[in-house]
Amino acid sequence: MFRFENTSRLLFVLMSPMTVTAGPDISINSIYYNVSGDTADEIWTDIITKSPVRQQGKQHVAYTKWHVNWKFWWLDNGDTCEISKVATSLDITYTLPELEQSSFIPDPLLSRWQSYYSALIEHEHGHRDFGIRAAEEIENEIAAMGARNSCKQLEHDANNIGEHVIRKYSLIEKNYDQSTNHGLSTGAVFP
Questions:
Q1: Which of 27, 55, 117, 126 is the 20 to 30 Å CA partner of 61?
Q2: φ, ψ of residue 153 in degrees (nearest 5)
């Protein structure tokens, strides 16, 4: 009797629709612009001159852009439709300064640069993490959707979930930049 019950449960699980998620497929790209100088002021002036990062009329030293794509599959059961699989992909692109090494850069200045750059990277990783969290949330929320009366309604609702999550994390990201003053309050200060 016990064995039969286990087998029945196993068959029930195998025959039941299951939603499959795997976590986001992440692609990372970095774009560097070269800066140079033998003093902190020269390096900073070169950053200001060469930075390609402009947003809302302001120039920034670095930028992390992320973009989430989602796709999903469904089972059409005739009178209902439900999600069977969800996949997300996340494209992340960093735009960062890269200090050209010079034999004229004094060690204390190089140490200051390295401390600054570590804090800058840490701040940009915060932006990356918002993209990762958005992709994971989209996957989880679409996977958790209940059945809908039609596949057209299911598709509409799933895409609304994705768009809502993107808007949510875009706002969180703006608040992150405001609260950290674009990384200045967390150590991304140079010269």
A1: 27
A2: -65, -40
Contacts by residues 56-63 (CB-CB < 8 Å, ≥ 24 positions apart): 60/182, 61/97, 61/120, 61/188, 62/94, 62/95, 62/96, 62/97, 62/120, 62/123, 62/124, 63/94, 63/95, 63/124
- Structure confidence by residue, pLDDT tens digits, 4-16: 222 233 333 333 3
Q: What's the predicted TM-score (pTM) here? A: 0.86
Q: What is the largest CA-CA distance in the chain?
A: 82
Distance CA 109, CA 130 (A): 32
What does DSSP say about strands 58-60 and 53-55: parallel, antiparallel, or unpaired?
Answer: antiparallel
Residue among 70, 80, 86, 71 at smallest CA distance from 151: 80
- How confident is the model at residue 18, as a pLDDT? 58
Q: Please, are residues 190 and 112 in contact by the beta-carbon 8 Å criterion?
A: yes
Going by C-alpha positions, the residue among 82, 96, 88, 164 that lies closest to residue 127 is 96
Strands 81-99 and 25-35: parallel
